[in-house]
């Protein structure tokens, strides 16, 4: 982090202070609005620093203000990624962080007497890991975390290989009727896996999910490439104009020719959420259909499909090793946490359904660290007992 970056952070702290005091003049307001519209990284930084929950969650979790670690985490989360030396700039950078925190603390008037109670832990829980089970057409199950690298299965016309970096790759060796045999890749709670299909499409499978497909990928009697999803997956589909790629889930069909998109179709979620990053997607349920554009999400509630713009980071967080908790429903966030840490959530009746939380948390943290980050906002208290999380207001 260089001095220019530090100066920018201090200027941003001053800007936030003036913003909360109502001291920005017409020109400054216009400049700020133009900057927020034209610079996505600046907007993310501004939104983050303008949310006292985010900043103070970060400060409290960073190993009790371990200065060097705080700077590393601060730089990863808010600054432009680059190689930098810590100690030559550590005082200035820490001053910038403290200045920002002070501005947010002072001008948003929190309760000075409130000290959040840290999460009560009887035994901590490690984060999830890479793992899945492959079920072949003959019923044989292969635990991929236990399987050695290299070819792990060979069905007629198909080779299935586990790569050195722990991914599953299908290759079609010859064309025959056995390509219609059905395989299923499934993850338990606390597992995630990456699969490369025979057409070279790539699938990231989230925790507690399953993907079912024929070994040759083609839908019998049709030209479509068909997979069936339960849970959540992110797709990077290889382009093939003559063979549409179709994802079926809970009565919905998503049809693409080649694109990047995410489908969340967990049984315990009230809606199916299909989010597009690039290309074009057609979402169909019965007679209802919608075509969505990049940055849009189709929300399917029992066949009624609504389209709205969405923050992509909040959708693909799990794929990128994060838990994005900024301005999302608290109970939705806890369902994400429950799947990744393989725990049961038990709510006290005092916890409302419409509460929101904020911040980012790494999916590589232990459960207690994640809960402490959330609890530092003072909205709820957690208690971990074995595989159960008790939540009180």
UniProtKB/TrEMBL annotation:
Domain Protein FecR C-terminal: 323-391
Protein name as it appears in the record: FecR protein
Domain FecR protein: 184-282
Transmembrane segments: 86-107
Pfam families on file: FecR (PF04773), FecR_C (PF16344)
Keyword Transmembrane helix: yes
Keywords: Membrane, Transmembrane, Transmembrane helix
Protein's UniProt keywords contain Lipoprotein: no
Single Gene Ontology MF annotation: sigma factor antagonist activity
Highest taxon of the lineage: Bacteria
């Amino acid at each position: 982090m260089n001095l220019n970056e530090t100066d920018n952070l201090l200027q941003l702290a001053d800007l936030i202070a003036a913003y909360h005091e109502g001291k920005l003049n017409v020109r400054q307001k216009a400049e700020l609005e133009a900057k927020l519209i034209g610079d996505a990284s600046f907007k993310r930084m501004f939104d983050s620093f303008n949310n006292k929950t985010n900043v103070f969650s970060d400060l409290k979790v960073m190993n009790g203000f371990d200065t060097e670690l705080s700077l590393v985490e601060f730089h990863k989360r808010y600054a432009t990624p680059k190689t930098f030396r810590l100690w030559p700039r550590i005082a200035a950078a820490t001053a910038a962080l403290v200045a920002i925190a002070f501005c947010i603390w002072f001008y948003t008037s929190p309760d000075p007497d409130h000290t959040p109670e840290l999460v009560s832990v009887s035994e901590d829980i490690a984060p999830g890991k890479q793992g899945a089970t492959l079920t072949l057409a003959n019923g044989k199950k292969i635990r991929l975390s236990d399987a050695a690298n290299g070819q792990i299965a060979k069905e007629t016309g198909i080779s299935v290989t586990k790569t050195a970096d722990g991914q599953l790759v299908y290759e079609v060796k010859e064309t025959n009727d056995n390509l219609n045999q059905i395989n299923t890749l499934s993850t338990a709670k606390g597992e995630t896996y990456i699969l490369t299909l025979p057409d070279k499409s790539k699938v990231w499978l989230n925790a507690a999910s399953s993907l079912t497909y024929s070994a040759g990928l083609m839908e019998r009697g049709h030209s479509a490439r068909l997979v069936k999803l339960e849970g959540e997956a992110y797709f990077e589909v290889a382009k093939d104009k003559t063979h549409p790629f179709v994802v079926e889930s809970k009565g919905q069909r998503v049809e693409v020719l080649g694109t990047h998109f995410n489908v969340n179709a967990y049984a315990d979620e009230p809606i199916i959420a299909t989010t597009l990053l690039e290309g074009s997607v057609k979402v169909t349920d019965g007679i209802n259909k919608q075509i969505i554009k990049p940055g849009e999400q189709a929300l399917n509630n029992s066949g009624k499909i609504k389209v709205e713009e969405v923050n992509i980071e909040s959708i693909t967080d799990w794929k990128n090793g994060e838990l994005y908790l900024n301005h999302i429903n608290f109970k939705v966030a806890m369902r994400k946490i429950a799947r990744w840490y393989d725990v049961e959530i038990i709510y006290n009746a005092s916890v409302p359904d419409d509460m929101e939380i904020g911040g980012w948390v790494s999916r590589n943290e232990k459960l207690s660290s994640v809960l402490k980050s959330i609890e530092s906002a003072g909205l709820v208290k957690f208690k971990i007992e074995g595989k159960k999380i008790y939540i009180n207001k």
